[in-house]
Amino acid sequence: MASTTKNFGKVIETGKEAADKAAYSPFVEGMARLGYGARGIVYFFMGLLTVKLALGAGGRATDQQGAIAAIGNQPVGWVFLIALLVGLVSYSLWGLARAILDPLRVGHDAKGIAERIGFFCSAVSYAMLVPPTYQRIVGGPRPAHNGAQTEQAQQTAAQLFTKPWGPWLTGFVGLIVILVGLVQLYRAVQLHFDRQTEPRALSDRYVKWVKQLGRYGMLARGVLFILVGVLLILSGYRVNPGKAQGFEGALLLLLRQPFGVWLMGIVAAGLVAMGLYSMLIAVWFRLKRSQQTK
């Protein structure tokens, strides 16, 4: 019995070593870089288009699919879309790697499990951007387009409202989305984000500025998540699927408030910062090899 237990322990230890090797392999690091680059491009275009709207220089409030569509509309946009498609697949796989292989050492306690669930949800959300991006490249029937988030939210809410518990479930989802936004605000304030990376060939001064970009971007994204969650709760409360909105709807909600141009512009600039931060990670950062457990 003792021998069997010992052998089982060796198998577990071997499995952990293999998982560690995979988590910090050049392939996973390269995948993470491609993924961060793609995420950065998407958020940069989201923010840039909205900043232009705030400045009265054209542009429009947009979501991730709207940014992808805008990229595709550039000269030789299909080339950029192919690169973006590879990056989106990579970021989705990176989310799975964070959830399963645990390179961040978040552990298996309640907090760690919650973070790993978040990584898995991130993987799913970016995987959902892959089909419309591909459709945009090949000219398919459902290409990436602006307002897709709002359409999906409203269609889902309308389906839920056919059930007696639909409004309650819609409100519950809204609460979860608000919680996601609050977590991002907390992580931004505490600088608890992207702990898996360490600077390469950067001075402390530049590292500080890069982190401040990330902080500003996380704050802006957190605000958008909170607004989307509030609108979902309002949709459930009024049993009105038209109240459900995506990121572009949340940005337009800011625009309709007093000093709305400034509010929307500040958040949009934060999205630009998020994009720049993500692209800098792709270029200048690498995965930590620390074996320290959390």
Give the overall average pLDDT. 86
Number of domains: 1
Number of helical elements: 11
- Uncertain spans, ≥5 residues at pLDDT below 50? none
Helix content: over 70%
Strand proportion, as a percent range, falls in under 5%
Which radius of gyration do the C-alpha atoms yield?
A: 21 Å
Order of helices and strands: HHHHHHHHEHHHE
Q: Count the E strands.
A: 2
**First CA to last CA: what distance?**
32 Å
The secondary structure category is mainly alpha
Physical arrangement of strands within the biggest beta sheet = 1-2
- Broad shape: globular
Q: What about the largest sheet?
A: 2 strands, antiparallel
Structure description:
Residues 34-101, 117-189, 217-284 form the DUF1206 domain. The chain is mainly α and 294 residues long. It has one domain (23-286). 74% of the residues lie in helices and 2% in strands. The protein is built from 11 helices and 2 strands. The chain has a two-stranded antiparallel ribbon with strand order 1-2. Helix 8 runs antiparallel to helix 9 (204-238). It is globular and about 50 Å long. The two termini are 32 Å apart.
